[in-house]
Design a protein that fits this description.
There is one protein chain. The chain is globular, with a radius of gyration of 18 Å. The strands form two sheets. A 13-stranded antiparallel β-sheet has the order 6-5-4-3-2-1-15-14-13-12-11-10-9. It is mainly β. It is built from four helices and 15 strands.
């Protein structure tokens, strides 16, 4: 598989979401991406043409470059829907500073019974650390990122931070269409042959390099978990996704992240 670039840590770019919302609400707008790619307006339901090698790298690099938010605060709710139990809702506040070299994330969760959990992690390069209350950092094994952040809620730092987007083995898979938008699929392979997920396929919007969905595969090639964007919304002067969904196929459960407020700065 071909490596297109050195991937930075996962985040969402402000231009990316602003442009996406202009597109959704108002129609096509001028940007470096739609200057490069032809805008296809629904109801054209045909898949777009496959990208040439140069444009494959262009879309991926645009996606990577738009993911560094810097310092921001995001708040809302996490709703866990088990397959055979009542839903449970948690209020959350995420304070973070994400850039190409380092991701610092602090999460406060208010449980259904009113108790509060505060936890944080820092990812720097290939290393992860738990942020302790005194400000010090404790080394954290990468496999701990796939464990639930709190008991009773199957939501992990891996779900939130998506460190698999830093994998450097990236291959273009071809055109697609999602939510009426022309899009393209990229496959990422885990450098650890024993690691999970073994492979991830992400779908990016053609015109704005927007992450629309992702599928996580196990070593047998089965989809274990999916993530998808549910919508976008304006928060003050800024635009951000309004909801994200994580769907676990094995347990038939899901977690919905709904955003009530978003701003740049901590």
């Amino acid at each position: 598989m071909k490596t297109f670039c050195h991937l930075s840590r996962f985040a969402w770019g402000r231009f990316f979401y602003a442009a996406m919302m202009v597109l959704v609400l108002l129609g096509p707008a001028t940007s470096t991406l739609n200057a490069q790619f032809k805008f296809r307006q629904p109801p054209n339901r045909q898949d777009p043409s496959a990208l040439g090698k140069r444009d494959q790298a262009f879309v991926w690099n645009q996606f990577v470059g738009n993911r560094n938010l810097g310092p921001f605060t995001l708040a809302g709710s996490l709703v866990y829907r088990p397959a055979s139990e009542p839903s449970r809702s948690y209020q959350f506040t995420l304070k973070a500073d994400w850039n190409q070299q380092r991701q610092s994330s602090s999460l406060e969760l208010v449980h259904p019974d009113g108790t509060v959990t505060e936890t944080g992690v820092v990812i720097s390069g290939s290393k992860a650390y738990r942020a302790l209350p005194d400000g010090s950092l404790q080394p954290l094994a990468p496999e701990r990122l796939v464990e639930p952040i709190v008991a009773g809620l199957p939501f992990t730092w891996n779900d939130l931070l998506m460190p698999y987007l830093t994998w450097q083995d990236v291959e273009y898979e071809g055109p697609d269409r999602y939510l009426g938008r022309p899009a393209h699929r990229y496959a990422l392979s885990n450098p650890d042959p024993e690691g999970f997920p073994a492979r991830v396929v992400v779908t990016l919007d053609e015109d704005y390099a927007a992450l629309l969905r992702g599928s996580l595969y196990d070593a047998d090639g089965e989809v274990v978990k999916r993530i998808r964007v549910g919508g976008f919304r304006q928060y003050g002067d800024e635009w951000m996704f309004s909801s994200l969904y994580w769907e676990d196929r094995a347990s038939r459960s899901s977690v919905r992240l709904s955003v009530d407020s978003f701003r740049y700065g901590l």
